[in-house]
Structures are given as structure tokens and as C-alpha cells.
Amino acid sequence: MSANSRKGPIIDPGVCRCCGSLKKCRIINxxxxxxxxxxxxxxxxxxxxxxxxxxLDGGPSERLICATCVNRLxxxxxxxxxxxxxxxxxxxxxxxxxxxxxxSKEGIQPDVKKEKIVENEVDEDDDDDAVxxxxxxxxxxxxxxxxxxxxKVLKRKRKTKESISEKATHDLMTRMQHQMNKLEDxxxxxxxxxxxxxxxxxxxxxxxxxxxxxxETSYVCPFDTSFSDYYCIYCRKQFTxxxxxxxxxxxxxxxxxxxxxxxxxxxxDILRIDCRLCPQRIDNIDDLxxxxxxIHHKVLYPNIDNEFLKFRLTLGRLICTECNNSYTFFHxxxxxxxxxxxxxICDICGxxxxxxxxxxxxxxxxxxxxxxxxxxxxxxxxxxxxNRYLHIARTHKKEPAYPCAKCDEVLFSYTLRYRHMIEVHGxxxxxxCEQCDRAYDSRKSLREHNRRFHLKxxxxxxxxxxxxxxxxxxxxxxxxxxxxxxxxxxxxxxxxYPRLRGLKVHMQSHSTEKKYKCTLCxxxxxxxxxxxxxxxxQHQSAEEEYHE
Length: 548
Hints:
Distance between the termini: 74 Å
Structural class: alpha+beta
Oligomer: single chain
Radius of gyration: 39 Å
């Protein structure tokens, strides 16, 4: 994760003149810095599209661009540079080939001249024969020494031309292949010429074709995820409720799915499959394939299995479509799905992964058991460079290190960014407890609620009695009841309490209105339980007489 590197004014809020969204924006014709390079977005429009924007001399509100459009502009400029680089390689290969052909032609020029002289001599002899003889179609042509010599010269000349043409074509193809291999090696350092890789690419292409056909002709819901959050694959909007994800995805045109970047691990929600082209109700992917090929004449590649990962997304527990195991969070379910379909397997522990890069990261955990990364400022040890970077940014440099993906804001912690996504960008996050009616806005809070109230996981036990506690802080407060210490003192009246909770309840008596008043005397309390305890202690006899 890289820290925010933009340097320049930010207008918040502002209307982006490229997409019309109301969000944090930058000024389109002012210089900013990104990854150590200067960029002016109006100049990038001219360089990439030849588009000269208007009204650049107006107020700042008329020349704004949001962070999303800036990223799209950078991608377009990067693609333009890639095309120009390929064109340059192609032209350089052709120029080099042209020079090599010129040298080869000069080398064979003397032989060609000799052949021309011989050819002229043969032509002169033939002319003399033509003048001195009368043409008779029934008479077979006379085979002379000069005619045989002429035919041999013509054959030799024709072979020479053909060899030159074949050599030129072969050289052109060789040089172009060499240049393209160099370009591919620079971008993607993979082994070339591997038949296995070619077959793998063909299978991925056919699987992607089948997936596009299924998405366009059915109501399946393609989606993307980050841990246990769901994202719309078309616009990247975030959801925690799969029902709202499906409802939102229906607003997009499925024909646009083919235009999206191809991903190796495609995820499809198959809670509803049904055909889009007719009212047919379908509950199985195999039945859908047969239906769209036989009824709607769609072309699908046969014998292509596992084009995508199939899920049935529900708000409660998630069920594996292969073995019916259930999981509370999607992240755990997807990790389990790798055991069914993951092709990247660790040789040491047998862990399965979908992508090779994830397997390489996992294998490093076996190699760096004793590897630590110390902080140069305080000497604290960390297990990864990323954790050390976050520590230095937050503790020593006092810099934010958690950038927001939707705006230019950078937060100091994951929790603050989490709250920022809810409050500023309106992310809907609500996690309902399956055991009771409580709901929380984070998975961590829901997990702690389940462990504490339903699973009753109390790991912290008192050494002097049998009481157990969920948090170590509660155990420390409890130990004060054995020692008689009252470390929590009220700063207003001086009363002390053995537990922090008791002090907090007492503090309400100084800051809030005492709503609960005793009907037998003038005492009043902030909580009803305190009023009941007061009546039992002070007016117990009066209460008994009242009941009699």
C-alpha cells in the first residue's frame, strides 16, 4: 500500500466535468505530482486524445476532475504509450530488414549483370533464327543449342528471385518475432514457446467465452470480492447484503460483461439462474447450457468445466455448492473453495490456492520463520515490511497510511477508513446476529458478540475464584474485589470504586438528569435500579406496611 502522493489543491466538494459526480476533485489545468512525476490533466487530454478542453480560464469550479476520472486518464495515456512503443519496434524491425536486403542485393548484382548479357546474346540469336525461318504451326519447334541455354538461364534467374523473396520474408518474420519476444519478456517475464502455456491460454479463452454467453443469457450475478465484502463487477459499488448486490446488478446491461478486463478467477452467484431470452425457469448451470444451445442456438465450447466459481450468496450462513459445508463469512468459504478447484498447491503443507502469486506468498511463510524486520527508530521487531511501514508512518512520522479508494482522503488506521467509507461514501454495512436480534456495523463487533454472549468463550480466569471473563481488562477489574483496592475515583465528589464500570455509572449522576425520584422521600437517581436499592435499604418497613 502506497501513501498518497498527490501535491496540489483539492476542491471538496466539486462537480467533475468529466463524469458529473459530486466528490473531491482536483483542478484540471494545475500541476500535480504522482509517483514522482509531474502531471497536468488538460495536457494529458491533448496528448492522448487530441482534445483541447474549453473554459480553462474560468473559476476553479468550472475546471475540476475527480480521482476516478484521473485514474482512467492515466490508464489511457499508459495504453497510448504502449501502442507507440510497439509501433516503434515494428518500424525499427522493418528499417533494419530493408537495410539488410539492400546489402544482399548489392552482393548478387554482378551475377545478375552477367546473366543479362547472356540473355541478350540468346535473344539476338533467337531473332536471327526468327528472321531466317518461316512459322509453321504443324512443324515442331527446332531445339537449338541457344534455346537450351536460354531456358537454363531463365530457370536460374527465376530461382534466384524466388530465393531472394523467401529470404526477405523469412528475415522479416524472424526479426518481428524477435522484437515481439523482447517486448513480451520486458512486460511479462514468462517462459515462451511452451505448449502447455498455449493450451492453458486456449482453455482460458474458451472458458471466458462460455462465461460471457451464460451471463448474457441468464440471471446469474457476476461479482467481485474483497475479503467478505461484495463488489458490483460493473461499477465497483460495495455491498454487504447479497440481495442488494443482485438487485443493483440487474440495473446494468449484461452485454457489457464482455468488455470488462478478463480475470482468471471468475465468481458467479447462481442463486437465480433462469433464462433471460425466454420465460424458462432453470435451476442448474448444465441445464442452462443445454437450453441456450438447443433452443437459442448459442455456441458454447464443449468439455470446458469450471469456467467460474459458483456460489449461492445468502445473508446468513453460506453453503458450499460442492460439499454443503457452511460458513459464516464469504472469505472463509472462498478459502475452502480453493480445496475443490485450486490448482496451485503448496508442496510443504498441501494448502490450495487459485493464483500462483498467492502460493508464492504462502511459501515464504515457511522460509522466514525467524525473519524479522526491525524498526530503525525504536528497535521494535515486525514479521513483514508492510507492518513495519505502517508502524513508522503512524508512530514516528505521524502520517496517515490508509488511503481511501474512492477519494483522495488518507486515514490513520483501518478503523478510521472503515468509518470514513460508511459516513462519507454511504457504504451500507449491517451484520445481523443469527442467534438474537442484535445487529452491528462491522464483522469484528459481530464476531465478538457471538463469542461473548452465545459461544461464551471466556479465556481469562481468576486465580482466586472460579470466575471467567471475556476480556483481560475485566479480569483486572475483578482482581480489585479480592484485594479491596479502589483505584477508580470520581474527580467531582471523591468517591472511589473497584471497577471502571462502577465509576462510569456514578459519573452519570453528575452529568445527567435524575429522572427516578423516590415517592417516600426527596431522593432521586439516574437509574431505576438505584432507586429500587434505595427503597429496599431505606424504606423497607414502609414498603411492607404499604403492601399489607
